[in-house]
Amino acid sequence: MAEFMELEGQDGVRMAWNVIPGTKQEASNCVVPVSAVYTPIKPFPNMPVLPYAPLRCRNCRSVLNPFSIVDFAAKIWICPFCFQRNHFPPHYASISDENLPAELFPQYTTIEYQSPGEASSIPPVFMFVVDTSIIEEEMAFLKSALSQAIGLLPDNSLVGLITFGTLVHVHELGFGTIPKTYVFKGSKDVSKEQLLEQMNFFLIKPKPPTGVIAGARDGLSSESIARFLLPASDCEFALNSILEELQKDPWPTPVDQRASRCSGTALSIAASLLGACVPGSGARILAFIGGPSTEGPGAIVSKNLSDPIRSHKDLDKDSALHYHKAVKFYEVLAKQLVHQGHVLDLFACALDQVGVAELKVAVEKTGGLVVLAESFGHSVFKDSLRRVFRSEDKDLGLSSNGIFEINCSKDIKVQGILGPCASLEKKGPLCSDTIVGQGSTSAWKMCGLDQATSLCLIFEIVKKEIPDATLQSSNNQFYFQFLTYYQHSTAEMRLRVTSLSRRWVAGPGSIQDLIAGFDQEAAAVVMARLVSFKMEIEAEFDPIRWLDKALIHMCSRFGDYQKDSPSSFSLSPRFSIFPQFMFHLRRSQFVQVFNNSPDETAYFRMILNRENVANSVVMIQPSLISYSFQSAPEPALLDVAAIAADRILLLDSYFTIVIFHGSTIAQWRKAGYHNQPEHQAFAQLLQAPRDDADAIINERFPVPRLVICDQHGSQQS
What we know:
Number of helices: 20
CATH superfamily of the largest domain: von Willebrand factor, type A domain
Distance between the termini: 33 Å
Helix content: 25-40%
CATH architecture of the largest domain: 3-Layer(aba) Sandwich
Number of domains: 3
Radius of gyration: 28 Å
CATH topology of the largest domain: Rossmann fold
Strand content: 15-25%
CATH class of the largest domain: Alpha Beta
Shape: globular
């Protein structure tokens, strides 16, 4: 496993098969598809950033890389993807074996290009969309958290504010004399044209001709835009004043009804306003929602409390009245946001469901962040929100306006991507007929991405026949190139290029090579993303049966055994943990929906779909570490036998971290022994799991829930 982590440390890529099956039949026999989990803008301290434009192949547009064949005498390079011969431009005239440009260094398979003149002129934009149909206590928590967040905003960032309950209020922050808002009916969908008309955008400049959508580039004056989007440094006082005076929605709610809440209309208005004012910028809509949407487009339940919110059973029976209509509405909203290049971040804090399952498509396609907590006063929400704006060592590295492209050898096609992106529908010879996730394209839009955002790329091997041995030994490499063009958090445009080469094998003697290159952690994560995707789109899909069949086929292909002798079965160490991962995946929250609401299931799957391999493995199979006087901290089996009176256990299931004190440890702690100088060792034992838990919490987004409990205590279950 260490060598695969080393490769990830160099390129941000983990592949399930690091030696690739060379033919279509071989690949299908391998069960786990040829795939890669790639973190496009993972930070690398030693990665060079080149201050010039990349050199591209004139045929396939791939970028010059260490796998290109170079003729230094003729000043020609041959593209490894399409074998096109390309001439070096004049400024490469001095290159030689001893004088290589950085992009040809063998160790720089991942490199970044920075175009000096291409920095965006538009600063970061944050549109806060705040739910006011919540109880007073929650309102106070939310106002406090928002005030802190506003204080952390970069001074030059543009800020807007929309509040909603029964009605939608768009606050005109630029009107400093008195608070001024534009009010829209929550039950009615408002088009972009109606929005601009009603908000007097055309008082200074005439309205553009019919059929032309107005925007910052073609008709809206900067004065009009500055009424609703102001630099944080200019409007901090106005924003805090509005927040201080913000009250819960004044419309009365009958005892037998839910509060009136028009989340869909508010988000639609926010998207249209940003689309008019700052199209193409990396603007973010931060939605703070404290309950289910009951009004207007995107409603997930009626106001009547006698109508329950949809459950998994309702979705399975297709009896959820509002579900399909709401999903369709958010699909249209997602398409609009992707077209504008804007991101939707969701902070859902309520004991009830709020509609994460319906909103999932809009958040995921725009690459937005999602946080689910039970209250706006909970540390999961407060700490996660702070982390979004914090710019210390643990900065999320929020970037925007990404376009992700793939190039690969002609015997490989792309089936699609499972992850936070949207298809740009760039069809071509690389596209497979089989579509998985966002497929039928070789380019994707990533409106929002951060240093941890990870995509799962699914490939198809199209070569049908096994080549003869001489050809196989002379030309046995498959090449991949991942291009990520994005707006860095410093506002400059960058191009990250990762070029990979993997050996392929085919024929009778290939099994040992395939086994040697199998990354069981990456394979488990790919299977988890695939099974989650299939559960969402295939009506009669049985995930347990599918996983069991996959595991049986894997074991029969790669296991050693004698027929009719179960005791003779053995697996190579390269495969030995994979069945364990499948065991836990079958029981995980991604597959078992019992005891979880559709919102929780959607939330877990959204996080799985954006996290890297190491974090995803913890979601599938939690880690358990044991602390005792007898030994240093050591991993323990996920078994009740790990519990002992003189041990402390640290359980990390990604979303929750539990510190569990054995009964003797708990009694000593209650007796205060750790405060006595002669029991320094006990104090250190108590502190060690807490320090490790804090280290995990500091690295993770969303911030996990921390539970500290004792054996035989109320929280131990």
